[in-house]
Amino acid sequence: MTVTIVGAQLGDEGKGGVVDLYGDTADVVARYQGGDNAGHTVVHDGEEYKLSLVPSGAVRGKVGVLGNGCVVNPETLFEEIDALRERGLDPDVRVAERAHVILPYHRALDGIEEEEKDDLAAGTTGRGIGPTYEDKAGRRGVRIGDLLDPDALRDRLEYVVPQKKALAEEVFGKETGEAFDIDHLYDTYREFGERLAEEDMTVDCGTFLQERIDADESVMLEGAQGTSIDIDHGIYPYVTSSNPTAGGATVGTGLGPTVVGQGEVIGIIKAYLSRVGTGPLPTELGGVEGQTPDYDPAGASADEEELATYIRDEGGEYGTVTGRPRRVGWLDMPMLRHAARANGFTGLAINHIDVLAGLDEVKVGHSYEFDAADSASNQNAARSDDGDELLTMPPTTEQWGRCEATFKAFDGWEDVDWAAVAEEGYDAIPENARTYLEYVSDELETPIYAVGVGPGREETVIVETPDE
Ligand code: IMP
């Protein structure tokens, strides 16, 4: 049986904590997309580990797999494995031979393109994710399997590197160095290939996982990022270049959709919204310079800024990988209804309700009013019965940016001893917080499996365990 974990919003929903919690009963934890743009913190035996590529389960003695849908930077991979070994762990990490390799020119081009794009820049993590997926789709990528095959590696590099060099130098007018040098790349990546082979790390992902499932083992499929930054279902072009949605779990591992569909798909929701990157955000509170479009600190409302700063600091809303302050906002229900449909959630984990404790009032963007300038025909989204409100996100980001959120207010809840709540169970959650949680669950017609009431994995109220 598989349990698939998917971010329901814009990434950073606290998936790591849930993977960690439910991953305890899993034998294998496999990532199916993304690369070292993800960031997760795992606390194990009182020690904190910050990882961006190695699946968190590997810290706890599980087999961690990077599926074929991932893009793998071998430098980051070995740095993380070596750092874990130095701290006395022995992570068992496998990498799909079909996964694509992030090369130094991908990182360089990620930075160059972001600079060029100006208003269209997605505010990427700069890890070379987009350019690597571009080469994958353009059939000029280098795969993990090629690192083990010197002739194939050389052939691939000889074809692709001159194109990348010309792009950087002639189109973008940049100087290039060893990141675009075939011999240097060949020597370095050949060595990575030797190490992958020596440590017997490469697998045919689908076969590897199916064998474990056939042996009655439990496999967790870990999505990175979130539904609204999915390249197909997110706020294009301010998205990542892969499919964090549940469909990605099948394509990105080689397990059939019927296999993934027989298991659970758990949507991870943060009780408010956070966003690293650019693009519109109808329920945003305040703003962050360089990320919020047209942000003017001088014209911002002081109350909103104060509230945003409070939530940002209480929730530690600073990027794990980049340290950037995240934009914050109220929960966006049209975004969540869209995510529930696109992923087919069977259960929800709602995190960080402790962060909102102590506020007099907690709001949610229940629906959107659409701008009068938009005719009904170019606002394709689910509507309320009277047709006046949008209940899900419209398909274009420009339309989304013109949506005004209609808010619903909930009475706030008090700060309590959340560790005690986690121990006592769901009914110990303050009543107003339960009203809030049940509203979300009812709107999404999906049961709540877990509620995060603090940063540690013990600080989770477990309502349902997926494979029991
Ligand atoms: P990229 O994935 O580095 O190409 O970045 C594309 C967009 O996805 C940017 O807006 C990033 O901020 C966002 N993004 C990428 N990874 C994460 C993540 O792990 N959490 C939240 N946002 C992310």
From TrEMBL:
The residues that the entry says bind IMP are: 12-15, 37-40, 125, 139, 225, 240, 324
Q: In which pathway does it act?
A: Purine metabolism; AMP biosynthesis via de novo pathway; AMP from IMP: step 1/2
Q: Mention one GO biological process in which this protein takes part, according to its record.
A: IMP metabolic process
Q: Give the top-level enzyme category.
A: ligase
A GO term from the CC aspect:
cytoplasm
- State the source organism's domain of life: Archaea
**What does the note under cofactor report?**
Binds 1 Mg(2+) ion per subunit.
Q: How does it assemble?
A: Homodimer.
Among PANTHER family, the record links this protein to: ADENYLOSUCCINATE SYNTHETASE
Please report the name of this protein according to its UniProt entry. Answer: Adenylosuccinate synthetase
The species this protein belongs to is: Natrialba aegyptia DSM 13077
In the record, what lineage is assigned to the organism producing the protein? Archaea, Methanobacteriati, Methanobacteriota, Stenosarchaea group, Halobacteria
